[in-house]
Every structure is written in structure tokens, then in C-alpha cells.
Amino acid sequence: MSMKAYVLNCPVELINTEEALGRVSNALENKINYQIVTINPEMVMNAQKNEAFFNILNNSDLNIADGVGIKIALKFQKINLNHIRGVDFSRELIKLASKNNLRVAFLGAKEEVINLACENFLKEYPSLNIVYSRNGYFENDDEIIGEIKSANPQILLVGLGSPKQEELILKLKTQLNGCVMIGVGGSFDVFSGLVKESPKIWQKLGLEWLYRTLCQPERFKRIFPVLPIFLIKCIISSVLKKG
Ligand code: UDP
């Protein structure tokens, strides 16, 4: 059964990690090409002005709530949902791949970063079946799509930033042969060990976005004014719905 809420007309599945992994297993069993979006306020705001991206968010197979902003937006609608951090969900997918000997592929981040991330994955899961990995700096989508198609992965993590990663996954959806694909943003930077993950206490307090902004001040202009405008729009939208 599907339980969705809408944040500024973008769907968010009301689901926990276990249920999301259940959907993944189901897609794998049925050899379905399956697009997962880790949806956050920046994406929702982008969708308000980019129709093609709005359509991607509305036609993807599973949008999981990443980021505390979505959690707060749902609270305005009296919905309590624990957000699923994209980086944690990616770890779960890798664990699943290792346990079931699934073919896994990684695309994104700088060369050094993706290589270190793969090394770390293999340290933790020596039998992980990595059939493809490539940095995320390329000119020709079709070439990359061809390479991934030949590698025939069952799980693909794409970390190119949004909306690039979601657009590429959409293209791949008609090309692959039963693959679960997820946009993972900057997760490879974390997996490489080069970018420090926010301490658990910051995560618990819902302040991971602040920690990341303090560590990478260039993120500031990405968050402001997008985040406050997002929250104001969500408040207005929930008040109008009540009225
Ligand atoms: N990136 C990439 N190719 C590009 C642009 C960006 O592989 O053409 C990578 C970049 O190296 C970083 C990730 O995409 O690893 C974007 O991370 P960001 O922090 O923007 O994503 P977020 O986690 O905020 O969604």
C-alpha cells in the first residue's frame, strides 16, 4: 500500500527505512528499473520553477524524505515522519548488495573521492560486487549510459548533485535491465572519508544542515534564502488547505 503526502505538490512517501528497503527488494525481485529520490527542500523549491524536474519528482518510483526541512513541512500538515538520511539509506543499499551478492555501480564525485569511497566499501564488505565506478565529471551522457548498460548493475548510486543525478537516472530508466537507482548527492564525499559526517547529536537536533553549512560555508548561498522561503510557502499552503 502506498501512503503519500505532498509538499508543495511534490510527493513524499510516508515510509520508514525498513519499508523502503522492502520496496527495493520487491523491485529487484521483479527486475523493475526503480528510481529513488532523496527529496529535500532545495529540490522541492527547484521543482516549483522547473517543470521537467517537477515531473521527475512526480513520476519517480519512491521519494524518501531526506532532510529535516521535509520533516518540518510535513509537521505543518500534522504528519509525523522521521526523515531518512540519504547517506544512511545508501549504506543500507550497499549492505543489501553485499548480503545478496548484487551487482552494484557507483557514479559521481571527483576521481579521488570515488576511488577512496570504493576502497572503503570494499574494506567493510570485501565481497561487494562492484561492476562499475566512475567519477561524475563527464561531457557525454550517452557514453556513460552505454558504459553502465554494459556493466548491467542491479543497484546504482548516482552522486552528481540535483537535478543532474535525477535527470540521468530518468534516462537510464529506459535503458537498464532491472536496476534500483538512487541520487545520493554528496554522499560519496562522506563515504570517501574526505568530508566529515555531522556528529550524531547535530543530526538528532535536526541541525545537520547547519553543521554542513559551517563546514562548507559556500553552501550558505544555496540554503539562503531557499530554506526560509520553502518554510513560509509550506506554512501558507497548509493554512490555505485548512481554510
Ligand atoms: N558532482 C559531480 N559532477 C558534477 C557536479 C557535482 O560528480 O558535474 C558531485 C560533487 O563532486 C559532489 C556531488 O556531486 O560529490 C554534489 O554534492 P552536493 O553537496 O551538491 O549534493 P547534496 O548532498 O547537497 O545533494
Summarize the structure in words.
The chain starts with a strand and ends with a helix. The mean pLDDT is 95. The protein is globular, with a radius of gyration of 17 Å. Helices cover 53% and strands 16% of the residues. It has helices at 17-29, 41-49, 51-59, 68-76, 86-99, 111-124, 141-151, 164-173, 187-192, 200-204, 208-215, 220-223, 226-242; strands at 4-7, 10-13, 34-39, 62-65, 103-108, 129-134, 155-159, 180-183. The chain is α/β, with parallel strands linked by helices. It has 13 helices and 8 strands. It has one domain. Bound molecules: uridine-5'-diphosphate. Uridine-5'-diphosphate is lined by residues 108-110, 136-137, 159-162, 185-186, 188-189.
Summed up, what is this model?
The protein is α/β, with parallel strands linked by helices and 243 residues long.
| Main sheet: strands, sense, barrel | 6 strands, parallel
Order of helices and strands: EEHEHHEHHEHEHEHEHHHHH
The geometry reads as globular
Q: Which parts are unreliable, with pLDDT below 50 for 5 consecutive residues or more?
A: none
| Derived structural class | alpha/beta
How many individual β-strands? 8
Beta-strand content: 15-25%
Q: Compute the average pLDDT.
A: 95
Helix segment count? 13
- What is the count of distinct domains? 1
